[in-house]
Amino acid sequence: MSSIYLTEDNVKNILSIDTTIELVEEIFREHSKGNAFNMPRQRMRIRKGMLHMLSAAIPYKGVLGYKAYTSFKAGTQFKVFLHSAETGQLLAIIDANELGRLRTAAASAIATKHMAKKENNLHLVFGAGFQAETQIIAITKVLNIKKTILVNRNKERGDNCIKNIKSKCLLDIERTENHKDYISRADIITTITTAKDPLFEVSEINEKGVHINAAGSNSLIRRELSEKIIEKADILAVDSKDVALLECGDILPSLEKGRLHVNEILELGDIVSGKIMGRKNDKEITIFESHGMGLQDIVCAHYIYNNAIKSKIGQPLPF
């Protein structure tokens, strides 16, 4: 059987946010149990851009593979290469822009499900870019959020983001440029930006407890949370410790200064699998630092491939 190529439209027709949440939660659990294997992201930098690669293997599903993407001024292109874990044969090349957006949102939703308080009235979201919409929708799938506030500077972009969200789900959501009016009451905070400096101070957050999803700091030059917030967290979880210790701009300064010990950093998979509690009481500050794992891409790619084969869609490749 020849390999197939699946487009972004194919992916959108097969993979929903609900299914992605189920798949990513499963792979967090199985990784914690030692049944799936992940390699930290590797980056090759040249003057005009960068090549990024995330590799993973899921033997119990019979697949392994990698996501490769380039980031240049002209834009970013994402592809997943899915192989058989039995023969090594290339099964599929899959466009992975939408796949990546969904699995990133799913990780935040799963962290919120296991680490947020029982009662959550206000969700404050920083950023209105490509990822913000799915972050917001995914979290509504796991918790009943009474109000969502979108914080961004560009009114047109923020309004478009809200319009897209409202076309897909019923949600009480509005936009602001000033987070200070809401942050002290926020039960959940999600940051999905390219910020180089912290977005808010520890003195501003909810004294009655808060859960924070920080999804934008996957580079040494990016920082969304201040050192004091990181150091004050009662529970600090990441998707992969190996990845966080290489490139988390939020965490590494506190580690380097000795104000945070590596053993204080937990993995979300251990929380999902029940090895560790995600929250002990409602007054705690819990943080999930999301950087991305190849496992998240490969488990979704496996699902997409299987459904494409069943539906007989995809373009055959000459090998």
| Gross geometry | globular
What is the residue-averaged pLDDT? 96
Q: How large is the share of residues in beta strands?
A: 25-35%
Strands, total number: 16
- Contiguous uncertain segments of 5+ residues: none
Radius of gyration: 19 Å
Residues in helices, as a percent range: 25-40%
- Please count the helical segments: 10
Layout of secondary structure:
Elements: E1 4-6, H1 8-14, H2 17-32, E2 37-38, E3 42-46, E4 49-58, E5 63-72, E6 75-84, E7 90-95, H3 97-115, E8 122-126, H4 132-142, E9 147-151, H5 155-166, E10 173-176, E11 188-191, E12 210-214, H6 227-232, E13 235-238, H7 241-247, H8 252-256, E14 265-267, H9 268-272, E15 285-289, H10 294-311, E16 315-316
Parallel strand pairs: 1-7, 8-9, 8-11, 9-10, 11-12, 12-15, 13-14, 13-15
Antiparallel strand pairs: 1-16, 2-4, 3-4, 4-5, 5-6, 6-7
